[in-house]
């Protein structure tokens, strides 16, 4: 990126979107400091270039954990260490170092009494799975057995997930028309268009589920059946070369990521494991304007480097969505189950220093009823949100507010945003918890979609990745 957002800007954006899980591609100390005491669950990473040192030295691994994990935990809610990225496919010469590095890092966590809280795994490209359809016939590249077999035993013994990067966009692009676009985008298919695994008679309505189940079947082929799959990267580019990448569009990115979020949020699982949630990170939080490669490589982000939305996610039916809508069709409301005292404090701020015109909340006025702190706070939060132009961080209020597509207007009580209305007495900056500060940052991912939508509902993960669940 030509202009990397400061760590505090990143955490402000994460909090404004109610993202409670994040994946970092390193363990940048400034970023970890910014994440301190936010409650956001964090995956830190060992970059590929550090594998040589860590894989050859137990002491180096211990120092890495002491410096990048123990020094920050528990103020930073670190939940996992991702060791390298797609090492077996992108840097096969380093494959022999992968298991030693993972074991040394695990040893260091045990020594620090952190192994109960923090898991060790490594993200793989889905390309290590051969013959992925039908899923029941999938198996890992046998040339990798020397690394994968002990690795799966390690994951099994430590209760860690198999981390997998799943990109239906690339599967679709490489299929030369064999994979229908609707199948890649989670669009509804008529029963006769669904893919059926002839061995299991399981029906597949999207590429994502088929790849995840292929991983489960590939593990079962090696007699490993109780290691969960975590999708550490997935997404869709919103711009590409018009001639060679015609399906890299904002509409398709919106369709894929919105459908993905709904799919994960509903905990539908996969045909092989129905009802079993698949933790998923969406790639990515920011566009990367200097990234080499094809045009689309630069445009996987939900936001540009200035925090301006690349497009709007549409989560029809969920009522809640990422607050990256630049239209007036979103509203800021009190979070269900929020602490009443915190709501009252936020309401008092909005109607005071926040300069929201709260006269309509007085007895006898249109928005007095229902006379509850939730209802009054929703009115005030929404008026502030729209009065501030729906900017990043303006629907946060210390975590008791959330963005929704459901218009809370009722009767003669019209909320800001309906028909373009905005109800403010003037302008004011949000409280310090919503502020943006300067600093230096690094390449990272955002996360767990179940959090985005559970909070936005459950959790999105960012890395220059947006994670789901």
TrEMBL record:
GO terms for cellular component: plasma membrane; plasmodesma; side of membrane. Its EC number is 3.2.1.39. GO terms for molecular function: glucan endo-1,3-beta-D-glucosidase activity. The keyword Lipoprotein applies. It is a lipid-anchor; GPI-anchor. InterPro entries: GH, Glyco_hydro_17, Glyco_hydro_17_plant, X8. It is found in: Cell membrane. The keyword Hydrolase applies. Transmembrane segments: none annotated. SUPFAM superfamilies: (Trans)glycosidases (SSF51445). Residues 330-415 form the X8 domain. It catalyses: Hydrolysis of (1->3)-beta-D-glucosidic linkages in (1->3)-beta-D-glucans. GO terms for biological process: carbohydrate metabolic process; defense response. Its main location: membrane. Keywords: Cell membrane, Disulfide bond, Glycoprotein, Glycosidase, GPI-anchor, Hydrolase, Lipoprotein, Membrane, Plant defense, Signal. PANTHER family: GLUCAN ENDO-1,3-BETA-GLUCOSIDASE BG1-RELATED-RELATED. Belongs to the glycosyl hydrolase 17 family. This is glucan endo-1,3-beta-D-glucosidase. It comes from Zea mays (Maize). The lineage of its organism: Eukaryota, Viridiplantae, Streptophyta, Embryophyta, Tracheophyta.
